[in-house]
Amino acid sequence: MNPASTPARRVVITGIGAVTPCGNSAPETWAALIAGRSGIARITRFDPTGCTAHIAGEVKNFDPARPLPAPLHPRGPGSDPMTQAITPKDVKKFGRFTHLGAAAAVEAYADSGLDAHRATLDPERMGVNLGVGLGGLPEMEAMHDTWKAGGFRKISPFFIIQIAPNLLAGQVSLLLDCRGPNMSVASACATSGHALGEAAAAIVRGDADVMIAGGAESTVTPLGIGAFAQMRALSTRNEAPEQASRPYEKDRDGFVLSEGSAVFVLEEYGQAVKRGAKIYAELRGYGATADAYHLSSLAPGAEGSARAMRLALKRAGMAPTEIDYVSAHATSTPGGDGEEAAAIATVFADNKANLHVSGVKSMIGHLLGGAGAMGAFAAVLAIRDGIVPPTINLTNLDPECAATGLNFTPNTAVRKPVRAALANSFGFGGTNASLVFSKV
């Protein structure tokens, strides 16, 4: 077959799962976001006394061995049913990021309706790309203490399985019998944005027909919180946790570290239509760039970020005027928010009157490796429901951000048709990812 004559393969989203500080499922999380409800609170997993930051976005009341709403049969009819993402026996085998990510991935798979078609689907055409930024930090800290107290013989034989970032993708591929491409991206806070983009590229080039893609992170630990606090990157608004994450606000003082996961089922459009799948949106474009400027700060005017957005639009074959919503990276840091806002204003200079921008980290906090997928989560569901989630805690807009002329959707969700949306995620090392989604 002549590749030049082959029609381009399209990629659509047919399933969504999430476990976040705002809810233990995708519907719970989305309901909180559009209601403007924060998931940030005082840290409960350890005593933060002595640290400047006492707050985080912890996932609450989460049981990794919770029963599934209905049994699944990823190995086809007649196979043993899967009734849990993680069994009670295996809870100690995996790190918390795998607990969170596997739960979100299995939810996305169940939501997609693929399970009813496994008898006719080739598992070698199904893959996984689940990004994790830092891996099993809680388990590293705990095992170091165990080793110090008891010596080498006390080190768990499961330790490497607990901490290796790619073990989430490996476990999901095993659970869901996905025998195609299997990998884990690690690119700091752009991790899961890149995971989604690279997973879509695998479908476009014909390596897979289905990809389970997204990201997870769990680093709310003494070292995780302490290290970012020592960088003076975290908010110290300890007396008012729900108000601490405040993108674009004049008196913002840093981000709030959080844990969680967001995962999508990406599927080749023709297959999705053939099996009668519900389609949330189409992933139209992906842009990945580097600032080559600084390891922990955006380039002036977020130049690299602007290139990522333009590249995503170009690959989507769309003009900036066709985008109705930007799900911004918007961490609530004094420098980053203004730089990204300037880049958005430059890219969408001819579309400011129609464009809404918001930062859901104001409610979720910063999921690090899961942040890009969380931004995509907001973009995709805004398209489906015609609701733009708000940027909460925004009462006194930073003059630098105000000068951009952008609408940052302060405090209250906005109902409007969203034909297409762009989601940004940027990370330490000067790495950038932008994704464009649209209605089908």
Describe this entry's structure for a reader:
The structure is a single chain. The protein has helices spanning about 25-35, 95-110, 135-150, 160-165, 165-175, 190-205, 220-230, 270-275, 305-315, 335-345, 360-365, 370-385, 400, and strands at about 10-20, 40, 55, 65-70, 80-85, 125-130, 180-185, 210-215, 260-270, 280-290, 325, 355-360, 385-390, 415, 420-425, 430-440. With about 450 residues, it is of the alpha/beta class. The protein folds into two domains: about 5-275, Peroxisomal Thiolase, Chain A, domain 1 (3-Layer(aba) Sandwich); about 285-440, Peroxisomal Thiolase, Chain A, domain 1. The two termini are about 30 Å apart. The model is unreliable at about 1-5 (pLDDT under 50).
Notable characteristics:
alpha/beta, Peroxisomal Thiolase, Chain A, domain 1, 440 residues, 10-stranded mixed β-sheet, 30% helix, 13 helices, 2 domains, two-stranded antiparallel ribbon, single chain
